[in-house]
Amino acid sequence: MFLLKGLRRSLRSLGGVYALIAYFAVSGRWTAAIIAALAILLLGVGGTIFYWARFRYRVGEDEIRIDSGVLSRRHRSIPFDRIQDVDIVQGPLERLLGLAEVKFDTGGGGSGRHPEEGALHAITLQRAEEIRSLVRSGRSAEAQAVAGAAERPPVYAMNLGRVLLAGLFNFSLAVFAGLFGLTQTIGQPLGIDPFRESFWRNLSSASTPLEQFVLTHRVAAIAAGVVLLLLIGLVTGIVRTLLGDYGFRLDRAGAGLRRRRGLLTKTDVTLPVARAQAAIVASGPVRESFGWSELLLQSLAQEEKSRGNHELAPLAHPAEVNAILKEIGWRPVPPAPAWTRVSPA
Amino acid sequence: MIAQVLVAWPVAVAFAAALLGIAATRALAWRRIAFALDGDRLLIRSGWWRRRLVILPKARIQSIDLTENFITRRFGTATLQFGVAGGRATTHLIPAIPRAAARALRDDLLGSVP
Questions:
Q1: For a designed S-S bond to A293, which of A145, A259, A283, B31 qualifies (C-beta 3.0 to 4.6 A apart)?
Q2: Domains in chain B: how many in total?
Q3: Are residues B6 and B50 in the same domain?
Q4: What 3-state DSSP class applies to A150?
């Protein structure tokens, strides 16, 4: 498992060589391309094997030691009280094999230049959870209560319908870029190019029935193309949201909110509430008219994506937003605050 | 020459439409930008297509910047920028408030820091 992951990472980092291989392939020098590809594969596999063989971690009394590296060794020791929290991430393959990746959130420096160094890849899920509870108990005694907390109802959860609805709103605007690209490429042989003046002239001067038939055919083709693109945009949005936010739930967990979500890749992170800087309620014109909004928390803790703002609720009603805010000890959003508009200048 | 102009006009129209769209969105967003003081926190509302309501507790404000450039000076407005822990990527701002109101708001927020 570690092999696969490391392989993937090293393959990605060798991106520039792909261009070389492609060049070889395109210019007909097949043997060179194959040799280069094989070399990359060998290097990648070999490198990863060496890395794995030399990767050691040890959970100590009050710290985690990670020794890694082949040529230049790195001995990293992370004291428990520097670890803000432990994230457990499981991709689909890892779920099948019962493994997990453990990432240590050290509050701002962890995912700097070497994110892999502060993380343990492909350890068994049980061990991962043991490490997590150990770290938490090492930090504060009250965290023991987490283990004891029974299945209280979640602070906020999304059922399948809600996730699909959220996917609907995440309509991919790349559709329009696709539309443009389509006209430029496929449009040429079909004679559909809105940027050429003759196109419009042909449209308006179709007189004979034959010409009109061809014209309607073209228009139908355009319409079909547009509909297809819209559908693609819609489906892409829904699929992406489904993969990312399936089974979204927020639970109260000690001094934070535990958020679980994901379909193929499940993530399980706890967001410390005390380090929250600001709350953001985001929405859009269509969403707002239906009463939906999104709750984000700006915090010092790290986030895998979305540049530092933790998503607490992708799609929620005002009542749910206020319930979450109450849970973290904030007052709810005032219904009609006395807004002061900014100067029209 | 005339043929070139004729060819170019759909592009020009599309371009102008896009500009108009951007301007309209900006104007709509402008009408929504507002702030409010709610006890111990500051609420900032912004945007039209991407709407955000920022709830910022006063205690979390690390720094307040009041800036003016030569254009805003003529109109008598100023921009307030609030820094929170986490660096410059995480600031919140209120774009254009009359200078006196900006100063008053800043003093109020600064004064409430324990």
A1: A283
A2: 2
A3: no
A4: coil
